[in-house]
């Protein structure tokens, strides 16, 4: 049985590199669920979803986006907004 696609426009086994506040790591889209801290997991997940949507919108264009970097606002344990810089790049196609 097939597992449902976690991020629209990307395979679950798609290899990615993500950078969160200067810390870089390689994983697959499916492995995003295993990032230890909630705020970093949410930030990487939101950025990866945004990249998938951007790739879907550019599906008929010559220049397909291979990565995305932006600042995500997430709530921390004290319910305060915290800005996290995130960059997600596709490694293999």
Concise synopsis of the structure shown:
This protein has 93 residues and is an alpha+beta fold.
Helical coverage, percent range:
10-25%
Main beta sheet: 4 strands, antiparallel
Q: Could you say how many structural domains there are in total?
A: 1
The structure class reads alpha+beta
Please give the alpha-carbon distance between the first and last residues.
24 Å
What is the strand arrangement across the widest sheet? 2-1-4-3
Number of helices: 1
Rg value: 13 Å
Number of strands: 4
Strand content: 25-35%
Tell the overall outline.
Answer: globular
Mean pLDDT: 91
Provide the succession of SSEs.
Answer: EEHEE
Describe the structure in your own words.
By secondary structure, the chain is α+β, with helices and mostly antiparallel strands. It contains one helix and four strands; from the N terminus they run ββαββ. The chain has a four-stranded antiparallel β-sheet, covered by helices on one side. It is globular, with a radius of gyration of 13 Å. The model has no long low-confidence stretch (mean pLDDT 91).
């Amino acid at each position: 049985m097939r597992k449902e696609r976690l991020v629209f426009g990307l395979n679950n086994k798609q290899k990615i590199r993500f950078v969160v506040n200067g810390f870089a790591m390689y994983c697959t889209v499916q492995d995003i669920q295993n990032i230890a801290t909630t705020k970093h997991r949410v930030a990487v997940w939101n950025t990866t979803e945004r990249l998938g949507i951007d790739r879907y919108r550019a599906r008929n264009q010559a220049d397909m986006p291979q990565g995305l970097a932006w600042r995500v606002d997430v709530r921390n344990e004290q319910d305060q907004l915290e800005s996290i810089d995130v960059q997600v790049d596709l490694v293999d196609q």
